[in-house]
Amino acid sequence: MNEPILELEGLSKVYPGGLKALDNVDLTIRKGEIFALLGPNGAGKTTLIGAVCGLVRPSEGTIRAFGHDMASDWRKARARIGLVPQELSTDMFEPVHRAVSYSRGLFGLAPDPARIEAILRSLSLWDKKDERIMALSGGMKRRVLIAKALAHEPDLLFLDEPTAGVDVELRKGMWAIVDQMRDRGVTIILTTHYIEEAELMADRVGIINRGKLLMVDEKEAMMSRLGRTEAHIALANPISELPQSLSQFPIEIEQGGTSLCYRGGDGTGRGKAEVAELTKALIAAGIDYTGIDVRESSLEEIFVSLLGEEEAA
């Protein structure tokens, strides 16, 4: 397993008035992974990012980045962290090239025109380098934010809702850029409302709500463990009732006896295996079928289900 480059222990943040934005969060991020942090508005995602990037002072807990304690040695650690904020907060009157070069200088790095050019080219911004940021489209402005965050060559990059307000084509382009950054060894933590993107890109997923980290797991393991399998089996001949030999399976007769619906695997990850067992049991019971449509839960369905359970608790 890759070495941890970010470790949060007991991280809490209580704002004046009593709002608890982070509630005893423990989290370890490994070198080279893409970690997706999912949660509704107000869940604590941006506060967590702000705490690591030095924008929010935690009420309790410790943050260690690259072996440095962020409370006592934050400058060394912060120099290796990049942030693409959710809000388009940059000097709109600055030309693109100058704004990105300035961001590099903020971290005490010497000018490197070749590096800045490479970043701008990788983000399809080179032909816009002399334009003022205010003249760019929303998607291009967001690319400028990414360029500014990459200017000092960070090893850990935070992307806070990086594709919010960006059209589908630009979103695809941005995720290709994320892939390139991962290939260069950059560790990426992203928050997103587009859960299908987390499902596509992330190695691990964390779900946060009301400041509490409800779950962290490998994406595939989470989907297997918490997902549900649903299978619709088209029968060759209608049946009016299920034989006793099939009573162990979570199935129901549908569509006037011409179809069976299996819903199972909840919390076990055994859904597909059980569907295979079911088909053997059907044949043994003399029930012929003409087709099977099997569907697994999406990450979004798991996310919504977990939040629903927490709201009910």
From TrEMBL:
<dbReference type="InterPro" id="IPR050763">
    <property type="entry name" value="ABC_transporter_ATP-binding"/>
</dbReference>
<protein>
    <submittedName>
        <fullName>ABC transporter ATP-binding protein</fullName>
    </submittedName>
</protein>
<feature type="domain" description="ABC transporter">
    <location>
        <begin position="6"/>
        <end position="235"/>
    </location>
</feature>
<dbReference type="InterPro" id="IPR027417">
    <property type="entry name" value="P-loop_NTPase"/>
</dbReference>
<keyword id="KW-0067">ATP-binding</keyword>
<keyword id="KW-0813">Transport</keyword>
<dbReference type="InterPro" id="IPR017871">
    <property type="entry name" value="ABC_transporter-like_CS"/>
</dbReference>
<keyword id="KW-0547">Nucleotide-binding</keyword>
<dbReference type="GO" id="GO:0005524">
    <property type="term" value="F:ATP binding"/>
</dbReference>
<dbReference type="Pfam" id="PF00005">
    <property type="entry name" value="ABC_tran"/>
</dbReference>
<dbReference type="InterPro" id="IPR003439">
    <property type="entry name" value="ABC_transporter-like_ATP-bd"/>
</dbReference>
<dbReference type="InterPro" id="IPR003593">
    <property type="entry name" value="AAA+_ATPase"/>
</dbReference>
